[in-house]
Write a structure and sequence with these properties.
It is a single chain. The protein is 40% helix and 24% strand. With 153 residues, it is α+β, with helices and mostly antiparallel strands. Helix 1 packs antiparallel against helix 2 and helix 2 packs antiparallel against helix 3. It has 2 domains: 61 residues, OB fold (Dihydrolipoamide Acetyltransferase, E2P), CATH 2.40.50; 53 residues, no CATH class.
Length: 153
């Protein structure tokens, strides 16, 4: 029984450490060094071809599944004895992981509507930019792209 509690505490502490390292930012890391070519920091002028509303990315980091699995396994371990306890621990871990993953996905989805703005650049190339709002942007507007965002000019 002591070994089970020690193992559960170690798994819980490990998942807490991993959760602290997770990043939910979709922006790339910027260390201040500009290597000369980076699509996210480029600037250009063009005309909006289309604007489409899309649902935000519905990804999970896995932290919800890990934490849910640990909690489910701990809860399952309190049921029965012998091989029944083992089966309940496994079933609780699997169910907890599924529930934890769904909770994290629902928390991240929270109505984050994104817009994909398709721009025909002055040099003839096409760029698709995703951003959280379109403000006063309309199809046919002349725009500039700065730091991965579309602005009217």
């Amino acid at each position: 029984m002591n070994a089970t509690r020690t193992l559960a505490a170690a798994v819980l502490a490990g998942s807490a450490l991993l959760t602290g390292c997770a990043s939910t930012s979709s922006q790339p890391y910027n260390d201040g060094y500009n290597s000369g070519y980076n699509n996210n920091v480029s600037m250009g002028y063009g005309t909006i071809e289309s604007i489409q509303a899309t649902q935000g990315a519905n990804r999970t980091s896995g932290a919800g599944a890990i934490l849910g699995g640990v909690v489910g396994a701990l809860a399952g371990n309190q049921v029965g004895s012998g091989s029944g306890r083992t089966a309940a621990t496994v079933a609780g871990g699997v169910a907890g992981a599924a529930i934890g993953n769904n909770v994290e996905r629902n928390r991240n989805a929270g109505g984050q509507e994104q817009y994909q703005i398709n721009v025909r650049m002055d040099n003839g190339e096409y760029r698709a930019v995703s951003q959280d709002s379109v403000y006063d942007l309309r199809v046919g507007n002349r725009v500039r792209i700065v730091d991965g965002r579309v602005y009217r000019y």
